[in-house]
Amino acid sequence: MLQTIKPYSRITSSSQLGGVLKISIVFISFRNIFWHIYKLMKFLKTQDFYKLCLYLSATTPWFEAYRESFLQVMPASDHEFLNHYVACMLVVSSGEPEPVEQFLRLSQEQHRIQHSSEYAYPKWFIPNTLKYYVLLHDVSAGEEQRADSVYEEMKQRYGTQGCYLLKINSRGSNRGADEQIPDPWSQYLQKNSIQNQESYDDGPYTVISNKNADHLISDGLDNDIQDGLSNNFKAHPLQLDHLSDTSSSFDGTDYIKTTSSLHESKKTSSGTPHGACLTLTDHDRIRQFIQEFTFRGLLPHIEKTIRQLNDQLISRKGLSRSLFSATKKWFSGSKVPEKSINELKNTSGLLYPPEAPELQIRKMADLCFLVQHYELAYSCYHTAKKDFLNDQAMLYAAGALEMAAVSAFLQPGAPRPYPAHYMDTAIQTYRDICKNMVLAERCVLLSAEILKSQSKYSDAAALLIRLTSEDSDLRSALLLEQAAHCFINMKSPMVRKFAFHMILAGHRYSKAGQKKHALRCYCQAMQVYKGKGWSLAEDHINFTIGRQSFTLRQLDNAVSAFRHILINDSKQPAAQQGTFLREYLYVYKNVTQLSPDGPLPQLPLPYINNSATRVFFGHDRRPAEGEKQAATHISLDQEYDCESSHQWKELEEQVVAVVNKGIIPSNFQPTQYCLNSYSDNSKFPLAVVEEPVTVEVAFRNPLKIPLLLTDLSLLWKFQPKDFSAKHNGATKELVMDFFLVATTTKFNISPQARLKLFPHQTGELHILGVVYNLGTIQGTVMIDGIDPSIGLQAGKFVYNGMSVRGRQDLEIQGPRLNNTKEEKTSIKYGPDRRLDPIITEEMPLLEVFFINFPTGLLCGEIRKAYVEFVNVSKCPLTALKVVSKHPEFFTFGGNTGVLTPLSPSASENCSAYKTVVTDSTSVCTALMSSASSVNFGLGTGSQPEVIHVPLPDSVLLPGASIQLPMWLHGPDEEGVHEINFLFYYESIKKHSKMCHRVLRHTAVICTSRSLNVRATVCRSNALEDEGKGDNMLVFVDVENINTSEAGVKEFHIVQVSSNSKHWKLQKAVNCFEDKDYKLASRERGKLCFKAVRCKNSGENYTFADVVFGNEQVCKLIQLNTLSAYVVEDNKQLILEGQHHIVLHTVGKEAFSFPQKQESPEMVLLKFFRPENTSLPTRPTPEQLSNLIKTSLHYPESFNHSFHQKSLCLVPVTLLLSNCSEADVDVIIDLRHKTTSPEALEIHGSFTWLGQTQYKLQLKSQEVYNLQLKACFVRTGVYNLGTHRVFAKLADQVTLFETSQQNSMPALIIINNI
After folding, report:
1. Where in the numbering of this chain does the TPPC8 first Ig-like domain appear (predicted)?
2. What residue spans of 254-393 are helical by DSSP H?
3. What does the DSSP 8-state code read for residue 574?
4. DSSP 739
5. Phi, psi of 1240 (to 5 degrees)
6. Which of 451, 584, 666, 1103 could bridge to 460 as Cys pair (CB 3.0-4.6 Å)?
7. Measured in whole angstroms, how far is the alpha carbon of residue 825 from the centre of its chain?
8. How far apart are CA 1157 and CA 220, in angstroms?
9. Which residues contact 72 (CB under 8 A, 6 or more apart)?
C-alpha cells in the first residue's frame, strides 16, 4: 500500500487553511510504522561512476541524494516535532473476514505503541493522533457489494471524513496487452530495489538497541517477518549515544561494486512494468483518495490542532509571562544583555515535560511551518527561542534558532533578511555545547543551501569547511567537495581553492573507503594543476590517481598517471623518484601480464631525442696500423660541420660534372654517409646490401636515479624489391645485431646507443623504433671501482631490481616549410626520411691508406709520401679520381714521365727531385727547354682540381691493392691547414640507384715559416743589346723569416726558373763567385735577373733555369711561376722545397705568400644618373704610362775650363722607343718639374738650351733620337732626368696624356780643368 500511494504524495491543488492561508503544493511523507532505517553510506555505493569532467554546478547528484537521505533518516527528537507523526492511516483489505474488527485491532495497536513507555520510536506529534481508516478493495477478486456495505458501516462508526473506500485492480485479464498505461512507480521502486540489493549484498548489520527494550513488536505480522525485526523504534541508529559506533562503520567499509552489476539491476528493475492490473480509472481513484485524505482529513486536523495550541498558550502562559516580563523591565530599568554562547551554562541535558508551555509554542511553530505559514512560524520560533535561552535550554534554543532562520528565508516577499547569525549560533551550540554533530550537520546543510541560493558562495564554503572534522571522513569529504564547488561558482571563480579542496575531499573519500569518488576528485583537481608549473603538486596528484586506479583495476589509467610523473622534469628527491619508478614498473608489469601476446606498449623512460637520431651507412673506420694512416672518411664520432659539408658537396659536384662532360645529371643526389638533423633528409637515403646501417639513438635520463637498459634492439620493417615477395612487409624485430647490450644512465648524462642492421637483400627498409628492457638498480655495491649511484659501465652492474620490456617509436619531424606563400602563412613540415633507406645492389668499396704522410712541413717544402688503394668489396672499381680545392698541394707519380738520370747528391739525400749535373761554364746563365700544355694537364677540357689516379688498366679488382707515390708541397702560408681529398670511383656494372661512390679524407698539415720571396719586373734601359728594347729586369728579394723553430740552420738558394710562353730568364746580373747563395736566420738577399722576349712565341712553354750550383733541377711544371729550391741543414737532414711567384704586371710587386687585405674604409654613398652616350673605351693610365720608353745617352763625366768659358755645354741624346703596336703622339717638356729652391738644390743649377718642348709622332715599334744640349755654370754632380714625356694614342678623340717616368736617375759629373 505504501509503495502504491507514494507517487501521488505530492499534491498541487490549491487549498486554504482557516480561510486565511492558501496552500498550493502539499507533499505528504508516508512511512510504514515499522519503517526500516538503512545505513546512510549505502547510497554512495550505488552511484554510477562515469565522468571525470570538471563539474561547474553548485552541487553534485550524489550530494543531493546524500542530503535527502540524511534528512529522511534523521531521528525524531524530543526538542523538535518536525519528524513526529501527525496522523496514522489504517488499511484493511475488503477480503478480510471481519474488516471492522481488524480496524479495531489496528487502532488499539497504534494506541499501545504511541502511549506505551516501552517504545522510543516512532514519535507522535500530539496525543490525539488523527486515524484515517482505508478499506482497500480488489475489484478483480472481491465482492463489490460486500465492500460497499462494510464502507457504510465504517462511515457510521468513523464519519465520512475519517474513512475511505479505495478500489483498485479494475483491469481484467482479457484486456489488450498493447494498451499504454503510465508507470509512476518506476522511479521509486527502482531506487528502492537498488538499495535493497545493496543491503542484501552487504549482509545483515547490527543495530544497537535500547537496554530497556527487549521484546519484539507483535502486530499480527507473519512470524518470519517478526523474527527479522529488531527494536529499531526504541533506539535510532543515528542517535547521539551511538554516533561514534555508526560513524566508524560508515567510514570503515571498503566496498567496490562494479558498474556493470548496477546496470544489470537497473535493467531488471526498469524492464518490469508496475501497476499492470491498474487502469487509468484506478490511477484517478488513488489520486482522489490522497486528495480526500489531505483536504478532508489531514489539513482540518492540523488546523484544529493549531487552534487548540493557541488557546492553551493564551490561557496558560500569556498572563504570567507578560507580567513577569513587565516586572522585570520595571525593576531593572534597562534591557538585560544576552549572554554569549560561551558564557551559557551547558544545559543540553535539560528536558521539558510534554505539557510545558515552551514545547507547546514549539509544536505550534512546527505545525505552522509544515502548512507553509512561515510568518506565524517565525514569530513562534522567535518567541520559543527567547524562552529557551532564558531557561538556558541550549538544545531547544538551537533548534528554535535554526527553524527561525529557515522560516525567515522561506517567507514570501522576503520581509526580513536571512538571519545567518541565527544559523551560526545554532551550529556552534549543536557542536560545542550539545556535542551533537548530526544536528550540526543538518544545520550546515540547510544554511549552505540558503547561502548558495543567494549567491553567497564564499560564506557557504566557509560554513561547510568549518564542520569538517576527524570523526567522520565521509561527511568531511562530502562537505569539502561542496566547498570546492562553491569556490568554482563564485562570481570570480577561485580555481586554485577549488582544486585544493577537491584534493582534501579526495583524501577523505579515500580514508572513507570511497575509492571511485576519491579518484574522481583527484582527476578534477588535476585539470586545474596540470600545466601550471606546480610539479610537486602534479606528482602527488598523479601518484594518488595511479594508486587509486590500480586499486579499482583501471590499469590503463594507472599506467598513464605514473607515466606523467616520470615524463615531466621532476623536482622530487632521488628516493621519491625511485618510489615512483618502482610503482610504475609494478603496475606496468601487471598490465603486460593481462595481454602477454599483445603489442609492446610505449615506455616513458629514458627520453629519446628524436631529432638527434643519426644514421650512418657503411663500415666503421679502420684504425691506423703503424705508418699506415687510413683515410678519415666520416664516422659517428665526428661532429657535423655545415661549412665542411657544403665543401664536400661542391667537390662531389665538381668531379661529377667532369665525368659527365661538364653537366651534372638531373637525378644527381649528393652522397651522405651520416644523416642527422642538419643534413638534407628530404630524399630517401641509399644504403648498399651487405653493408651495415648504424642507428645512433640519443637517450636522456630526466631522473636523479640510474636507469638500467638491457637487450636493446631495433624495431624495423622491410619490403623487398625485385625479388619473390615471400615477405609481406610485416614488422620484424632484430635481436641478434645490436651494438649496445646494456647501459645505465645518470640524470646528467646523455648516452647514445648505436644499433646496427645488416641488410641481406635489396628493398625498402623502415626503422620504426627501439625495443629494450627498462629496470632499476638497487643497492650501492662497488663493482670494479664504480659506484652504481654514479653510473655503471655497460655490462658491469648488479641487477636486483624490477624490469619490464617495452618500446619507444622513433618519430622524427621534418623541417618546417617556408618556400611558398601558403607554407609561410601556415605551419607545415616537410618529410624526414633518414630512417627509411633504400637498400641498393652491391657496389665496390674503396679504402685508402697514407704511408709516411707528414703532419708538419716548411712553407714550400716538397715531401714524398705513398698512397695505397685497396678494394675490399667483391666488385671491381674503375674511374678512380681525386678532387681537392688545393691541387697545388699534391700530385701523383706515374709511369709516363721521362726518365732522367739522378745526380749523386740527389741519390744520396733521397731527394724528391731529379737533378742532372751541369757544366761549370753555364753558371749564372739560363738553361733553356720547352714543354707542351698537354704535359700540364691543360688543353684536355678537364679542370686542374680533378686528378685522375693512374691504375693498371684503369681497374682495381676485388681484394687488390696498389701503392702510388705522392709528392706534397707545403702551403706558402704558415699555420694549420685542412686539405680535403675526395676520392671518386665507380662500379664496372652500372646501377640505376647508385652511380658512383666517394671516399673522404681530410689531411691536417702544420706549416712553419721558411722564406719570404718578393719579385718585381721593370723595363730595362739598355737598348743597345736589343734593337727594339724587348728586355726586362727582374728583381727578386729573398728573406729568411724562419726563427729556428724546427732547428733550421740555413737556407741555400740552388736554382731560379721561369716558365712562360712569351718571356724567359737570360742571365743573373749579380752572380756570386762562390756559386753558393746562403741565408741564415733573419738574413735577406736580393737577386737581379735579365729577362728577354721569346723569339718563337707559340703554344709551348719556355723554361729557363738559372742554376747557382752544379746540379740542375728537373722542371716541376707550373705556369707563369718562378721557382726557388730550398734546403734545410740540420743533423745531416736536407729538406727540399720551392716557392712560386706569379708576375702579371710590370712595376707591380708580387709575393710568394698571400697578403692580408685591409678592409676598405667606409665612404659616403654617391648617387648619379648614367649618361646615355657611351664613352669610347680608352686605355688605363697604367697602360698609357708604358707606351713610350725613354733613355738618355751622355758621357758619365765631362771636363770643362770655367776660367776660360763660364758656360759648359754638354750634348745629350734622348732616345724614344714606341713599345706599342699603334701610333703614339709624344710631347717632350724639358722644363724642370718645379722651380722651388729645394728642387734646384737637388737637380743642380743647369738648364736646357734650345727648344724646350717638342711634339712628335712615333710609328709602331719606332725608335727616335732627339739631340739636346745641357748648360752648366759650375762643377758638380747633376741629374739630367728632369724632363717630362707625355703620350697619347693618335686615334683617340679625347686628349689623354700621361707622364713617362724613368726607371733610374741620369747622373753626370762636371769637372773643372
Report:
1. 637-858
2. 259-271, 280-293, 299-316, 318-332, 357-370, 374-390
3. H
4. S
5. -65, -35
6. 451
7. 22
8. 124
9. none
For the four alpha carbons of 816, 821, 824 and 825, in that order, the dihedral sign comes to negative
Give DSSP secondary structure letters for 5-60.
HGGG-EE---EEETTTEEE--EE-----TTPPPPPTTHHHHT------S---SSS-
**C-alpha–C-alpha distance, residues 767 and 715, integer Å:** 6
Task: Give 702's DSSP letter.
Answer: -
Our measurement of the distance from residue 116's CA atom to the centroid of its chain's CA atoms, rounded to an integer in Å, reads 79
Across the range 1212-1241, mean pLDDT stands at 73
How many CB atoms are closer than 10 A to CB 530? 14
pLDDT in tens, 705-754: 888 888 899 999 998 887 334 444 433 444 333 333 334 444 445 588 88
Task: Tell me which DSSP letter residue 599 carries.
Answer: P
| Burial (CB count within 10 angstroms: exposed 0-12, middle 13-18, buried 19+), residue 622 | middle
CB atoms near residue 1155 (< 10 Å): 8
CA distance 348 to 433: 7
Which element (helix H / strand E) includes 490? none
Which residues neighbour 1036 within 8 Å (Cβ) at sequence distance 6 or greater?
A: 1013, 1014, 1015, 1056, 1086, 1087, 1088, 1089, 1122, 1141
Please give the Cα distance from 276 to 169 (Å, whole number): 8
Q: What SS3 state is found at 573?
A: coil
Region 1209-1237: mean pLDDT is: 79
By C-alpha distance, which of 557, 561, 562, 607 is closest to 583?
562
Which one of 166-180, 374-388, 1179-1193 scores highest in mean pLDDT? 374-388
Backbone angles phi, psi at 764, to 5 degrees: -110, 125
Q: Which three cell numbers stand for residue 477?
A: 569529504
Q: What is the pTM of this model?
A: 0.63
CA–CA separation, 1051 vs 1125, rounded Å? 9
* Overall size of the chain counted in residues: 1313
CA distance 384 to 862: 123
Helix, strand, coil shares, percent, the chain, to 5: 30, 25, 45
Percent pLDDT > 70 in the chain is: 70
The C-alpha cell at 1035 is 728583381
Q: How many other CB atoms sit within 10 Å of the CB of residue 1180? A: 8
Specify the pairing of strand 996-1008 against strand 856-858: parallel
Q: Which grid cell is 1272?
A: 752648366
CA distance 157 to 160: 9
3-state secondary structure of 476: helix
Q: Is 528 helix (H, G, I), strand (E, B) or coil?
A: helix
Q: Which residues contact 891 (CB under 8 A, 6 or more apart)?
A: 947, 966, 967
pLDDT attached to residue 887: 86
Tell whether the model's pLDDT for residue 1244 goes beyond 50.
Answer: yes
pLDDT in tens, 998-1017: 999 999 999 888 888 888 88
Which residue pairs, CB below 8 angstroms and at least 24 apart, start in 1025-1030? Answer: 1026/1092, 1027/1263, 1028/1217, 1028/1261, 1028/1263, 1029/1189, 1029/1217, 1029/1219, 1029/1263, 1030/1092, 1030/1093
3-class secondary structure, 796: coil
Task: Give the pLDDT confidence of 841-881 residue by residue, as tens digits.
Answer: 999 999 999 998 888 888 888 888 999 999 999 999 999 99
The predicted model gives 563-576 an average pLDDT of: 83
User: Distance (Å, rounded) from C-alpha 89 to C-alpha 106?
Assistant: 10
Measure CA 315 to chain center: 86
Q: Which amino acid does the sequence have at 993? A: K
Q: Is 265 helix (H, G, I), strand (E, B) or coil?
A: helix
